[in-house]
Amino acid sequence: MFHHMEWDSTDDGLEASMDDSPHLPESSQSMSSTTNNISEHEFSCHCCYDILVNPTTLTCGHNFCRHCLALWWESSHKNECPECREKWEGFPKINILLRDATDKLFSDVVQRRRAEIQENPKISRSLLAFQRYGDNLGRSRTNQHKGAGFFFSGVLVALTCVAVMVLVYHWSSGVVEQHDLLISKPVSHWTPEEVVSWLEQLGPWAQLYREPFQQENVNGRLLLMLGDEELLKPPYSIENQAHRRAVLAELDRVKALGVKPPQNLWEYKAANAGKSLFLLYALKRSPRLTLFYLYLFDYSETFLPFLHTCCPAITHIDRSMESSFLNAQLEPSWRQWGEFLVKYLLLPYQLIAEFAWDWLAVHYWTSRFIIVNAMLLSVLEGCALWRLWTAARIRTLPRKMWNHLWKMLSQGFAFALLWPFVPQFVCNCLFYWALYFSPIINIDLVVQQLMHPETQAL
């Protein structure tokens, strides 16, 4: 890289004029004598206070050594002049006229300093990162119509148009599935068919008891009157204690809520539109803070099933669906808490991926989108930590965490205030965008981080 930064210090025209100065007119000779009286202070850098090497002029007019400016840019993370703090426009270029003048007037000092710069690995890395940042900045401005960015932008626009058309068609048709009605329809108004649908959603084992419920024409009011003794006796005859406990546990939840509790992603979204959108964005931006929020304010309904899904208890290999349902209502063991805390601190996105993996049978493609997105977010978090470590700025991590915490809290408070005024159509568009299109955006970010790990847009 330094071979590209070394410039030809010979200028035949200037040397000839200096060699032939005795033959010049008297005015030219006086100008030459004035040049010889120039002091080094007039060609010094205001960062290192030494002779300018590869002088770079900013838009404010101040000149600095190229490597001094690179070190300042890398340490301050600001595109501004080290002296007057005015932001520069574009990417600073080397002042060729000033460079040639310093090479002519102070050739020995400049050569010595260039040798020192080449031998310093820290300065070399800073210059390389600074140059790559300038290359990326210029490439993004001059080649906006080329590269992966244009491809991904086109894909996003196309997918957005298709998604909006599908959503508009779905909502305009007014077709709502039966299980979506149960999460909003009071249980006392359920028909016998809806009761059978509720029973089937408890698991494959519930198919054994479908026929008795149909024969007895059990509706919502009769369902609320059922207890352990009624389920044990004919005509229901649920003799399996685990099955009977599962039905009673779910029936208690129905009685407490007054409606059917959501049992998959789409039902949860329909019942909790604002919370689902908040969790979708918050788990991406700050998974640890979001899980802590669930622990404090939504322990039994959301956090406890999430923990049991990601860190299941040790059970028999042939565990059934009803036993899994009952285990999700119990307090976690110390082993589960230990496993959860380790993943929570080190690999929070793995928890989300494991949760999505458990729902592959219900949400086939959606779960895969979530798993891929969790992997990409883990890579981006690792790249951010690696930049802090290599740049020796790991000590700034507490301050960054505090700023991030304050930012998330303020955004969450604003979201809670403005959410009731957001139209449902806008909420659904944001939901599907974050769910399906975020992995495509994150792929582009991961590619940029892996190709240019030293650079970071400021």
TrEMBL record:
Compositional bias (Acidic residues) spans?
A: 8-18
Q: Which GO terms describe its biological process?
A: apoptotic process; proteasome-mediated ubiquitin-dependent protein catabolic process
> What catalytic reaction does the record list?
S-ubiquitinyl-[E2 ubiquitin-conjugating enzyme]-L-cysteine + [acceptor protein]-L-lysine = [E2 ubiquitin-conjugating enzyme]-L-cysteine + N(6)-ubiquitinyl-[acceptor protein]-L-lysine
Q: What InterPro entries is this protein classified in?
A: SAM, SAM/pointed_sf, Znf_RING, Znf_RING/FYVE/PHD, Znf_RING_CS
Transmembrane segment boundaries: 149-171, 369-392, 413-435
Its localization reads: Endoplasmic reticulum membrane
What are the EC numbers? 2.3.2.27
Q: Where is the RING-type domain?
A: 45-85
The membrane topology noted for this protein in its Swiss-Prot or TrEMBL record is: Multi-pass membrane protein
Region (Disordered) residue spans: 1-34
List, in alphabetical order, the Gene Ontology terms for molecular function in this entry. Answer: ubiquitin protein ligase activity; zinc ion binding
Domain spans labelled SAM: 190-257
Q: Which cellular component appears as one GO term in the record?
A: endoplasmic reticulum membrane
Coiled-coil regions listed: none
One Pfam family assigned to this protein is zf-C3HC4_4
The keyword Transferase appears for this protein: yes
The main location is: endoplasmic reticulum
Keyword Translocase present in the record's keywords: the answer is no
Q: Which UniProt keywords apply?
A: Apoptosis, Endoplasmic reticulum, Glycoprotein, Membrane, Metal-binding, Transferase, Transmembrane, Transmembrane helix, Ubl conjugation, Zinc, Zinc-finger
Q: How does it assemble?
A: Interacts with CASP8, BCL2 and BCL2L1 through SAM domain and also with HIP1, IFT57, ESRRBL1 and BCAP31. Interacts with NGFR; this interaction inhibits NF-kappa-B and JNK-related signaling pathways.
Q: What does this protein do?
A: Membrane-bound E3 ubiquitin ligase that plays a role in several processes including apoptosis regulation or reticulum endoplasmic stress. Has anti-apoptotic activity, both for apoptosis triggered via death-receptors and via mitochondrial factors. Contributes to the dynamic control of IRE1/ERN1 signaling during ER stress by inducing BAX inhibitor 1/TMBIM6 proteasomal degradation. Promotes the activation of TGF-beta signaling by mediating the 'Lys-63'-linked ubiquitination of TGFBR1 which is critical to activate the pathway.
**Protein name as catalogued:** Bifunctional apoptosis regulator
